[in-house]
Write a structure and sequence with these properties.
With 230 residues, the protein is α/β, with parallel strands linked by helices. The chain has a single domain, classed as Ribonuclease Z/Hydroxyacylglutathione hydrolase-like (Metallo-beta-lactamase, Chain A). Helix content is 23%, strand content 28%. It contains 6 helices and 14 strands. It has helices at 36-45, 66-73, 148-159, 182-188, 197-205, 215-222; strands spanning 2-8, 13-20, 25-29, 49-54, 76-80, 90-92, 97-100, 103-109, 118-122, 126-130, 133-134, 137-138, 167-170, 180-181. The strands form 3 sheets. A 6-stranded mixed sheet has the order 1-2-3-4-5-6. A 6-stranded mixed sheet has the order 7-8-9-10-13-14. A two-stranded antiparallel sheet has the order 11-12. A hairpin with an 8-residue loop joins strand 8 (103-109) and strand 9. Helix 3 crosses helix 5. The longest helix has 12 residues, at 148-159. It is globular. The termini are far apart. The model has no long low-confidence stretch (mean pLDDT 96). The structure holds fe (iii) ion. Fe (iii) ion binds next to loops.
Length: 230
Amino acid sequence: MLFRQLFDPETSTYTYLVADLDTKTAMLIDPVLEQVERDRQLLQELGLTLKYCLETHIHADHITGTAKLREATGCVGIVPQNAQAVCADRLMKDGEVLELGSVKVEAIATLGHTDSHNAYLINKTHLLTGDSLLIRGCGRTDFQSGNAGMLYDAITQRLFTLPDETLVYPGHDYRGNTVSTIAEEKQWNPRFVGRSRDEFIQLMANLNLPNPKKIMEAVPANQRCGNVAA
Ligand code: FE
């Protein structure tokens, strides 16, 4: 398997490139519109054919590159079950496994940041958490039908029960972190360590974060898979 973490500095978003080297096929998880040329060039340089674009959720902070990539490559756009994205070619529900040659991607429903959200576990070793679990943090729950109690349950009951050595790759990082493990997050994530479900809900209700700059344009555009012209 080829695995690459790519970064969009404007929105601190990580995009992941995962490929099967026998079949030379690839998928991108959470591509960013402004980085489509970077992604296409890398695919070309590595001799890879893009088969899938996966979203962990409908983003509020950036516009997805899926529509543009689909137009250019004919790839299949996949969103989590119940995502309000009429443009998607396919939905992925909890427990479903997508295969790309010998690479297996399992969807783990991790609701709470938004009311439709998947983490993707690649080959049982690399966990792409989207905006559920972040490194020493977690996704916010104060808009897009977010629900702190549901996020607490998803992270503590679904993700923290994966093997300790599972690698954690988040959808964003604002401090320069790139990768963690389930063991590390269980031990050191300040949002969860020593906090009950009720205490977590209290904490999340009092963060008072400003809205993302692009929320008004990003959410409707992402419901069209990033098709800004529509
Ligand atoms: Fe998000």
